[in-house]
């Protein structure tokens, strides 16, 4: 996919590791497509670490790292969408060569869309496909109740009900006290941000939905068809908001097949 591929240190090949402030990658020099993944609210690039071994060999994994988590823990969470998008567009340049697509989960879907559209407005390159996962359309978010407006205890309960934390983490109050402010900052960022339908994205959009997701049920994602001038499809999976982490749901396999068949 690239003319000059940097040599990967022994032991790191195939592992998702940092390459710059916003980019982690599991290098596969022989891959013919690349999927760039955007994490959920409060999540980091390593939310996609397991995808490195679950994607087809022909697909290389890259993931976006956001400020305020993991190797960027010392930074404050993003507070301006425009500045964040500019930063990510610049840092993703090494992986925007050859065919690539974007995958975003929850709030990460909104960021993936805005980055894709920023690339399009600059004349490209643009993703071959955008996967939006567990995310209602922007107008549904804007019209509905905002999680970030809830009192602290209720916000905490709502976040836990989404299922994004494993039992060990959610039971550790000290860990949760450190994580919840980052999650809250992400919800504030995206629940306050206006995403417009124009200009429409020229890439096809596929919306992935958990059948029992109270946060983003199927009827609230169909409007993503208005955000693209290309094809729009939906795919249902058993489970809730974090259906992609549930046993039996091979989301990387589905993504890989969709890209390779196209």
Structure keywords:
globular; 262 residues; alpha/beta; disordered N terminus
In brief, what are we looking at here?
With 262 residues, the protein is an alpha/beta fold. 31% of the residues lie in helices and 15% in strands. An 8-stranded mixed sheet has the order 1-2-4-3-5-6-7-8.
Please describe what this structure looks like.
The protein is an alpha/beta fold and 262 residues long. Helix content is 31%, strand content 15%. The chain contains eight helices and eight strands, in the order βββαβαβαβααααββα. An eight-stranded mixed beta sheet has the order 1-2-4-3-5-6-7-8. The two termini are 17 Å apart. Residues 1-11 have low confidence and may be disordered. It holds the Pfam family Thioesterase. It comes from Streptomyces longispororuber. One of its GO terms (biological process) is lipid biosynthetic process. Belongs to the thioesterase family.
């Amino acid at each position: 996919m690239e003319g000059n591929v940097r040599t990967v240190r022994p032991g790191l090949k195939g592992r998702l590791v940092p390459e710059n402030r916003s980019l982690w990658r599991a290098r596969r020099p022989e891959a013919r497509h690349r999927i760039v993944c955007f994490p959920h609210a409060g999540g980091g690039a390593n939310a996609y670490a397991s995808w490195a071994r679950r994607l087809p060999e022909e697909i290389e994994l890259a993931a976006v790292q956001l400020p305020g988590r993991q190797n960027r823990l010392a930074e404050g969470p993003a507070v301006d969408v425009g500045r964040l998008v500019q930063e990510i567009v610049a840092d993703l340049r090494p992986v925007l060569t050859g065919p690539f697509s974007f995958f975003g989960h929850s709030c990460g879907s909104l960021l993936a869309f805005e980055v894709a559209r920023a690339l399009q407005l600059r004349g490209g390159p643009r993703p071959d496909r955008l996967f939006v996962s567990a995310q209602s359309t922007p107008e549904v978010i804007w019209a509905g109740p905002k999680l970030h407006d809830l009192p602290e205890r209720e916000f905490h309960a709502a976040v836990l009900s989404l299922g994004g934390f494993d039992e060990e983490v959610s039971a550790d109050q000290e860990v949760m006290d450190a994580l919840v402010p980052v999650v809250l900052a992400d919800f504030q960022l995206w629940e306050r941000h206006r995403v417009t339908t124009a200009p429409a994205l020229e890439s096809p959009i596929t919306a992935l939905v958990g059948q029992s997701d109270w946060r983003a049920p199927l009827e609230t994602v169909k409007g993503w068809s208005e955000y693209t001038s290309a094809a729009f499809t939906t795919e249902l999976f058993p489970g809730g908001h974090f259906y992609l982490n549930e046993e039996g749901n091979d989301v990387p396999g589905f993504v890989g097949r969709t890209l390779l068949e196209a």
